[in-house]
Each structure stands twice: as C-alpha cells, then as structure tokens.
Design goal:
Layout lengths: L19 H23 L3 H28 L6 H14 L2 H22 L7 H6 L3 E6 L2 E6 L8 E4 L9 E3 L4 E4 L1 H4 L5 E3 L4 E2 L4 E2 L4 E5 L7 H14 L7 H24 L2 H11 L2 H20 L2 E3 L2 H7 L4 E4 L11 E7 L5 H12 L5 H12 L8 E6 L3 E6 L2 E6 L8 H13 L2 E8 L10 E10 L6 H10 L4 E5 L4 H11 L3 E3 L4 H14 L2 E5 L5 H6 L2 E5 L6 H5 L2 E3 L5 H36 L5 H19 L15 H17 L3 H14 L3 H34 L9 H27 L7 H25 L30
Parallel strand pairs: 11-18, 11-20, 18-19, 20-21, 21-22
Antiparallel strand pairs: 1-2, 1-3, 3-9, 4-7, 4-9, 5-6, 5-8, 10-22, 12-17, 13-14, 14-15, 15-16, 16-17
Helix pairs in contact: 1-2, 1-4, 2-3, 2-4, 3-4, 3-9, 4-10, 4-21, 8-9, 8-20, 9-20, 9-21, 10-11, 10-20, 10-21, 11-20, 12-13, 15-20, 20-21, 22-24, 23-24, 23-26, 24-25, 25-26
Length: 810
C-alpha cells in the first residue's frame, strides 16, 4: 500500500507517486524468489532454497521498514507494522518459506493499491494556459506589446477580438461583448457598456476595445482564481485507509496474542506463527481489490475515477454541490418561444433572424440558426453583414435590411410588453428581430420590429431522475451554486427539489461554500467550467462534466464524466458505495478468520509455514468476494425492452412535434383576456379547439392505449402510470368543457360575455396541465430510453414555434 495515503480522494501534493515503480518491481522479485526456492527444494538443494527465500523476505522487508518509519513520523501505526514484525520473526526463527510467502503477500498488496491510487496529473494546466503572458499597452497613438507583469495601474490597454482581458479595469472606448464563462460558468455572452468594470480572464467575443487598468496582474481576478485552485488543491488532510482504521484495534490485539503465546507457551515460533496469520492479508488485499474492481466498473460506464481514494470517498458522500450551467442544464441556449407583431408568423420571424445570423459567432445566433435548421427552414444567403458588438447583427436578407440582437426595447406595444414580462418570469434572454431602416444607421430608428425570440438554457432531461436516484443512494443534502441571477437559479432549485440555492456566486464564494459544506459531511462538487476548478479542488471529491474537452474542471477533478449525461453520476456513486461495502465486508470477514487462526497458532497447532499458507487461502476467499465489485449490482435504473423503448422514442418525437400546438391554447386565452368576447377571440378559440381535438387528444389517447401498457412491466406495475392516466382524464374533461362553450357560442351566434371567465379558466388550465403533463412524461418515461443521437432534446412548448401557422396574439 502507498505509504502516503492520498488526500481525501484529492489531487493534492502527494509524495507517494514515486513509490509506484517500487511496488510493481517488488512483486515479480518476491514471486521469483518464492518459485526459485520451491524448485531448489524439489531438487534437494535445501540450503539454496533457504537463501533464496531469505533474499525474497529481505527484499520485502527493506521497503516495508521505510514505509512503517514514514507512517510513524506522521503519528500513524498501521497494519504494515505487523507485516514487518512477521517478516523479521520468520528470519529470526528460521521459517524462511513463511517469510517468502509473506513477502509475496506484502508485494501483492502494494501493487494492488498502487493500481488503485494511480491518477492523472492535477496541475490545473488549463487555468495556467488561459493566463495571458503579454498585454497591448497604448501610449498616445503607439501600441506596444509588453510583459503582463509590466502593466501598471492607470495604463490604457487594447483588447483585440478573441483575446483574454489581461487585468481588471474599466471599459474606456466602445461597448464590449464578453464571454465571461471562465469566471461565471454562464454560456450567454454579456454586453458591457463604456465605463463598466471588466475582470481579467474573460474573453473578448466582439470587436476591439480599450481598458483602463485598475489593478496589476497579480491583484486581478483571474490571478486570484488560479491561487484559489492551487491553495484548495494543496490543503486537504490525507484520507485514512480502510486498513489503518481497523489497525487501531487489530494491531495491539495481534501483538498481545503473540506476546501471550511466547510467554505462556515458551516458544518464539508460536509468537511468529501468530504474527504470520495476523499479517493482515485481508486488510492489505481486500480493499485495493474491491476499489480497483470498482474503478474498472466505473470506466465501463463512461466515468474516469482518478484514484481509489476518490472512489472510496465517493461511497461515503452525504452532500452534493452542483453548478448550474452545463451541469444541471445543457449549457447551450435553446429557443423556447417566438413572439410576433401582428401580421407575422413565428416561422417568418425565425427564418429572417436565422438567415441574418448564419455568419455570426454569437452563441445566441448559433442557437437561432440551429433552431431554424432543426425545423427544416430554408435560409436565405445574407449580404452586407455587419456585426455590432453588444448590439447584434444587421444584414440584407431577400432585399430587406434585417437587424437581430439584444438591443434597446422597441416601441411600446401590448405584445412587446408581454415578451418582456415573459422573459423576466422565465429567466429568458430576448433577441429582437427588426426589418427595414438604414444599414449605415447606428440606431434602430426606422426598423419595423416584427418579432422577438426568447432563449433559455434548458434543464438536462435526466436531471430530475438522476437527483432522485442520488437521494435514494444516501445523499442527504443537495446544494446549487451558480454565478447566474437569482430568479433562474431559484426556478431550477424549485423544479429539482434542491435543499439550498445560492446565486450570483463568484469562484471565491463557491470555494467558501464548498469548504463550509465539507466541514459538515463528505462533500461532492460537480461542475464543468474553469470557474468551477477551485471549488472542485476544495471538495472531498470533485466531479467534472468533461465530455466537451479538457478544461481546468477536468484537470482539478477526481472524477470525470466522459459522456455528457448527468445520470452517469448516479451510476458511479452506486458503484462507489457497492465497492466500499464489499471492501469493508471482505476485510471484516478476513479479519475474523485471521483472529480464529491466531487462536489456533497461539496454542501451537499451526506452525508458521502452514499459517502462511492458511493466510493465503483466506486471501483467496476475500479477493474472490472483493472481485464481486466487477459485476453490476442490483440495478437502480429501469431497462426498457426493445418494443417499449421504440414506443418511448415515438412519443418523444411526437412531443417535439406537438410543442407548437400548446402555444395555440395560450395565445387564444391571451386574446380572449385582451379583447373579451369578440369575433377574433372566438376564431382563436375555435383554432385552439381544432388543434386540441385533431392533434393533442389523439396523442394522449394513443399514449394511454399503447405506451402506458408497455411501461407497466418495466416500471413494476400500474402505480407508476396511474398519475398520468388521471391527468388524461382531467385533460379530456377540460377539452369537453371548451367544446361545450363553443357549441353554446355557435347556437347563440356569438360568444357571450358570461362565458369569458370560465373559458379563461378552462383554456389557461388546459395549457398549464398539458405543459406539466408533458414535462412529467419526459422526466419519468422518456428519460428511461437511451438517446437516439447527440442532437439536443427540446421539451419547451415553443421548440417547434417556427412551425406554427395560427395567428399570433396581438
């Protein structure tokens, strides 16, 4: 085993790595000595066999003495002490074969633990590589490249497109478009106006701008971030090995029994025999074998666990701290709704915006273009494209000037106010789309604002089920730490049932919060950005969503999820708990057998060589038990048969296609609320009823008849689908109520004012119920199936907004 146990599953400043070569070279040496001695004995060369076995014993004894001395200097008395005493004892009493057997056992234990503890470098290369080495300083009309350390407070620095802001300062000339994800983890670009502060480490995603330096490099934000990661990575106390926990009572007991056997029996051989069978093979072997098996099992699930200690700590975790963007959410903005001015359809607005945005590198532009292409829209080739940092894109599309961007609010209108309110409530970003005006104009005067596109970073579809599995597995506290605003953070926390939500957290705040949680319980931190690296290093176990490439997060983490699926976290925690349980079980059973053998050896019925062989038999038993960690345990996930999975994928696709139907209900209700019992509102209600009866209700009835019966067996009975069946009943009831109202209006020749209140309750109720029902089915059923592809899954009710043909609300 490693003489310096790793720090809390951590990357820290571990000095045990140089002993890896010794552990692996010692094993073949001791095995060779044992085999050569056996061959010499068979050939009748007894003296040569004894010398060979002595050499093997000494080969194991010398490094073992160094390992024990190192442990004693740290104030630890581990089970290695028993191995040293037994090795010395066999030499003193001439039990050379027993010594050679013990040497093989010690070498095997060291090699196994070395394999369990081997891990990748944790030098946080990504953080260091992101730090700029130079800056461009402007003096008058001259711009010189200077070393970063030469930048002084008050210098005027030029930051070009794609460059990293070198020091903290304030924007001096033009507005800046910044990618602040390195600090906040948020994927949406941020506009900063002239005079606003800007922090070092952020990336210029727009045109060149100038910064007035407020701090030198060493005192700036990003330098502090690097220091936090380094300090957190070096701070943790070492984890106590399973073997050493039990050694607190096992070692004194073994020594006492050996001393009693010598004193009472009058034979040093008896004492050595006791030490031989007390040599904690189960302790030395069981834990490493179970942990290595768990590491292997985790790898097959697409999870890299970088050390055995990390897996063992993961099995004891009670608190989970999560970042939001890229961890609980998909990390990429998605179109959730399209609002339009009167006379325009959502498909027209999206097609115009996507056509203009095709050449823009902006993250929101990419989301709009992807949305249009997913919906099969044919985009026009833009000309005269101009990217305005902080404002958006203007381009000529089909002969008309189109402006797309996050600009100032357009002229007040009921539909624009509705968009602003919706964005505030949903925590969404608004991209306005205008047509007309003059391309050389710096403002938006003359534009006809034709629509608005709302975007949001959606939750991962497996987030709800994964967190539920983690609670079942033993996690008692789930905490969200995010640099995002409070409103969207609280919404995510409420949807996922988290115990605590902390928004607008800087990297330093995250580290402080993780340290506080760690004081109370073994804490796991999950993140995916450079800004998460210090917090990952500060946690007992850091877990990185590393599927998108090497980042500081994956460098700082103990566990890396190599696939972009959060449910793998639940899988690896289950593996960790089972591996640790098997390690403890094997160690306890092995020690019990060793205690029984010690009693037999103490009364002289078990000589040292026979005791060593018996101990090897115990080793085999505990190793076979520990190897059970290679096999999957009792599954806590549902495996769908092929026919059920095909149905899930079919109805999931229908959900995406029906996403454009749900807004028809809301739009009709909005129109009724705005205009009252007018013919226009009646027409909108009839359209909503048509969509409901021709598309939504047939889908729900097909689910009831086909999908739910197919899920009954995999989910263990009808109880799992009963709530959804009850929702279908309520949907049918409200649909009949809407149809009845329309029949009454047809009979009367108009919609009567007395119907308005009940119609509003009915239609808004239908819209809310269907949204909830869709979300529940996606969480409970659709998340069970393997993704058909890596294409993003959309669950919001406006994902297919570009396909809507109904009249938009005015």
């Amino acid at each position: 085993m490693s003489p310096v146990a790793p720090g809390e599953g951590r990357r820290r400043t571990v000095t045990a790595v140089p002993t890896t070569w010794l552990a692996w070279s010692l094993l073949p040496a001791t095995v060779l000595a044992l085999l050569v001695g056996l061959v010499a004995t068979w050939a009748g060369a007894g003296r040569a066999a004894e010398l060979t076995w002595t050499a093997g014993t000494v080969a194991a004894l010398v490094p073992s003495l160094a390992w024990v001395a190192a442990a004693l200097r740290r104030g630890r008395v581990g089970v290695d002490l028993l191995a040293v005493l037994s090795l010395v004892g066999t030499l003193l009493v001439g039990e050379y074969l027993a010594g050679a057997l013990i040497a093989v056992m010690v070498a095997t234990g060291r090699a196994l633990e070395s394999a369990a503890e081997r891990r990748a470098s944790r030098d946080l290369r990504a953080l260091s590589e992101h730090v700029p080495r130079t800056a461009r300083r402007r003096v008058g009309d001259v711009v010189d490249v200077v070393a970063l350390d030469d930048v002084e407070v008050g210098d005027l620095l030029v930051v070009g497109p794609g460059e990293v802001v070198p020091v903290d300062g304030r924007i001096r000339t033009s507005a800046a478009l910044l990618d602040e994800s390195v600090l906040t983890g948020e994927s949406v670009l941020v506009d900063r106006a002239v005079g606003e502060s800007v922090r070092s480490g952020v990336v210029n995603a727009g045109g060149a701008f100038e910064v007035h330096a407020d701090r030198i490099a060493a005192d700036s934000t990003y330098a502090g971030l690097v220091r936090l990661a380094q300090e957190a990575g070096a701070e943790s106390a070492p984890i106590v090995r399973l073997a050493d926990r039990y050694a607190a009572w096992f070692v004194p007991l073994a020594l006492a029994v050996a001393a009693a056997a010598w004193i009472v029996g009058g034979s040093a051989v008896r004492a050595v025999a006791v030490l031989v069978v007390a040599t904690p093979c189960p302790l030395l072997l069981a834990a490493p074998v179970a942990i290595v098996s768990g590491l292997s099992r985790a790898t097959k699930c697409g999870v890299v666990v970088r050390s055995g200690a990390a897996l063992e700590s993961l099995g004891r975790a009670r608190t989970l701290v999560l970042d939001k963007t890229g961890t609980l959410t998909q990390g990429r903005p998605r179109v959730i709704d399209v609002a339009t001015a009167p006379g325009w359809t959502p498909s027209e607005v999206v097609r115009l915006a996507a056509s203009a945005d095709q050449v823009s590198p902006h993250v929101l532009a990419a989301a709009i273009v992807a949305h249009a292409r997913t919906n099969g829209m044919t985009l026009s080739v833009p000309s005269a494209v101009v990217e305005e940092p902080g404002r958006g894109v203007s381009a000529v599309v089909e002969g008309s000037l189109v402006r797309v961007g996050r600009r100032s609010a357009p002229p007040s209108a009921s539909w624009t106010r509705s968009v602003a309110a919706r964005a505030l409530l949903d925590g969404a970003t608004v991209v306005w789309v205008g047509r007309g005006g003059h391309q050389d104009s710096t403002d938006d005067e003359g534009d006809d604002v034709v629509g608005a596109i709302l975007l949001r970073d959606p939750l991962r579809r497996d987030a709800t089920r994964t967190l539920r599995r983690l609670r079942t597995a033993g996690l008692r506290r789930l905490v969200l730490l995010t640099g995002d605003r409070a409103t969207p953070a609280r919404e995510v926390g409420a949807m996922l049932g988290l115990d605590d939500v902390r928004a607008e957290q800087s990297p330093a705040d995250k580290v402080a919060a993780v340290r506080a949680e760690r004081e109370e319980a073994v804490t796991v931190m999950v993140g995916d950005g450079v800004n998460d690296a210090p917090a990952l290093a500060a946690a007992t176990v850091g877990v990185a969503m590393g599927s998108r490439g090497a980042t500081a997060a994956s460098e700082a983490a103990d566990v890396v999820l190599t696939v972009d699926r959060l449910d793998r976290l639940a899988d690896v925690m289950g593996i960790a708990r089972r591996s640790r349980r098997l390690a403890v079980q094997s160690a306890l059973v092995g020690m019990g057998l060793s205690l029984l053998a010690m009693a037999v050896a103490a009364v002289g019925l078990l000589p040292p060589a026979a005791g060593a062989l018996l101990q090897e038999g115990i080793d085999v038993a505990v190793i076979l038990n520990a190897l059970r960690a290679l096999r999957p345990g009792r599954p806590d996930t549902v495996t769908l048969p092929a026919d059920a999975e095909a149905l899930v994928h079919r109805f999931e696709a229908e959900h995406r296609d029906l996403a454009d139907a749900l807004p028809a209900l809301r739009d009709a209700a909005d129109l009724l609320a705005d205009q009252g019992a007018t013919p226009v509102a009646l027409d909108a209600l009839r359209e909503a009823d048509r969509v409901l009866t021709s598309r939504l209700l047939p889908h729900e009835h097909a689910e009831e008849a086909q999908l739910y019966p197919a899920l009954t067996a995999p989910l263990g009975g009808t109880d799992a689908t009963a709530p959804m069946t009850r929702a279908h009943v309520e949907i049918d009831r409200l649909a009949r109520r809407l149809s009845t109202h329309l029949d009454l209006a047809a009979a009367a020749g108009e919609l009567e004012h007395g119907q308005v209140d009940d119609l509003l309750a009915t239609v808004y109720g239908l819209h809310a119920l269907l949204r909830l029902h869709f979300a529940q089915e996606e969480d409970e059923y659709f998340a069970l199936a393997q993704p058909m592809s890596d294409a993003p899954r959309r669950t919001d009710d406006a994902t297919r907004a570009g396909r809507r043909d109904h009249q938009p609300r005015s």
